[in-house]
Amino acid sequence: VLKNMINVGFKPDLVTYTTLLSLYTKLEDTIRSVQVYNNMIDAGYKPDLVTYTTLIFLFAKKENTIKSKQMLEKMINAGYKPDLATYSLLLKLYTKKEDTIKSEQVYNNMINAGYK
Fold first, then answer.
1. What span, in angstroms and rounded, lies between the C-alpha atoms of 12 and 18?
2. At a CB cut-off of 8 Å and minimum separation 6, what does 7 contact?
């Protein structure tokens, strides 16, 4: 889809990339989601909170704790604070993986951030 848009002269912006990322995430297409993310970076766009949360959602859905944590770290390093949706995704992931230590860490971070 992205190549077709570019071929007809349409220059995607951050919203376009994030929308495509969301589409591929809903389809659980990890490969295309990551390709869209990489294309967005290559085009000079910086991911926003929605972009990061969408990728965390994808990796959490795939029960990939390593990628979820890496994306969370990228989000924080970019200056974004996790929101309630991000905390909820991570809490659900670690609970499903029966990782009580990580679940408690996420919960405590969520409370410390002011969420109840």
1. 10
2. none
Locate 36 and state its tokens: 């869209």
Structure token pair of residue 53: 């949360």
Q: Is the pLDDT of residue 2 over 80?
A: no
- Rounded Cα distance, 100 and 113, in Å: 20
CA 81: distance to chain centroid?
A: 13
- Dig out the tokens for 14 from the structure: 């951050």
Q: What pTM, to 2 d.p., does this model score? A: 0.87
Tokens of 3: 């190549």
| 3-state per-residue secondary structure call for the chain | CHHHHHHCCCCCCHHHHHHHHHHHHHCCCHHHHHHHHHHHHHCCCCCCHHHHHHHHHHHHHCCCHHHHHHHHHHHHHCCCCCCHHHHHHHHHHHHHCCCHHHHHHHHHHHHHCCCC
